[in-house]
Design a protein that fits this description.
- By secondary structure, this protein is α/β, with parallel strands linked by helices.
- The protein has one domain: 3-Layer(aba) Sandwich (Rossmann fold), CATH 3.40.50.720.
- The chain contains eight helices and seven strands.
- It has a seven-stranded parallel beta sheet with strand order 3-2-1-4-5-6-7, sandwiched between helices.
């Protein structure tokens, strides 16, 4: 495969959890994958396990004013950007009335503002190329009400709305925008949350028709589908990878 033919992807939060699984799957498919994260140690470990197709960049996406130059540097170095996976995000579990304005702002800034700024800058590059795929990561919190995650729910509901609006506006320029809504996936982050709360874990499993947690690779396969020619005629969708959780009774 020539360098011209090889696809270039950015995966934010790509050094752990769903992002790492997605980066790994992309690399298996021969895609050069630029992993953006804040944790140097995790980035180093990811690079060691993923090999030469992984390029790790330590960067805080909360620094919105630095995102345009980050994207320009990536294009200078690698020539193009074919795929963007907006995976980086944080959660906060607190009773509604205990969530401060600062708490709410912090979650929205990380999960929404950063995604908007990075998507805007990458879309400019994709527009000049005449093609591209942007993949958002949503959540079951955007599908139904979950207590104690108000800020996270607000951010992920906005992501689903942005997916549709961006898809309509960017389609004429050959850019597709889709969203994956993971259900309850077995990762370190979810294990910590669910194992400390047996009642919540039982509720999750009882309303999931398939009766089990998903695996990170299930989300990675969905991301590869949206990144590839297999989904050429698909844009503006939200795909629940959730074992039926969002329609469970």
């Amino acid at each position: 495969m020539s360098e011209q033919q090889q696809k270039v992807a950015i995966v934010t939060g790509g050094a752990s959890g769903l992002g790492l699984a997605t980066s790994q799957r992309f690399i298996e498919a021969g895609i050069k994958t630029i992993i953006i994260g804040r944790n140097e140690e995790k980035l180093t470990q990811a690079k060691a396990s993923l090999g030469e197709l992984a390029i790790c960049i330590s960067f805080d996406l909360g620094q919105l004013e630095q995102i345009p130059s980050l994207v320009q540097d990536i294009v200078k170095e690698h020539g193009k950007i074919d795929i963007l996976v907006n995976n980086a995000g944080i959660n906060l579990k607190k009773d509604f009335w205990d969530v401060s304005d600062a708490d709410f702002h912090h979650i929205i800034h990380t999960n929404l503002f950063s995604v908007f700024s990075l998507s805007r800058e990458v879309a400019k590059i994709m527009k000049s190329q005449g093609s591209g795929s942007i993949i958002m990561i949503s959540s079951m919190a955007a599908k139904y009400g979950i207590p104690k995650v108000i800020a996270y729910t607000a951010s992920k509901s906005a992501i689903e709305g942005m997916t549709k609006a961006m898809a309509v506006e960017l389609s004429p320029f050959g850019i597709r925008v889709n969203c994956i809504a993971p259900g309850f996936i077995a990762t370190d982050m979810s294990a910590k949350a669910l194992n400390n709360d047996p009642e919540r874990k039982n509720k999750v499993l009882s309303r999931t028709p398939m009766g089990k947690l998903g695996e990170a690779k299930d989300v990675a396969e969905a991301a590869l589908y949206f990144a590839s020619e297999s989904s050429n005629y698909v844009t503006g969708t939200s795909l629940a990878v959730d074992g039926g959780n969002s329609i469970g009774f």
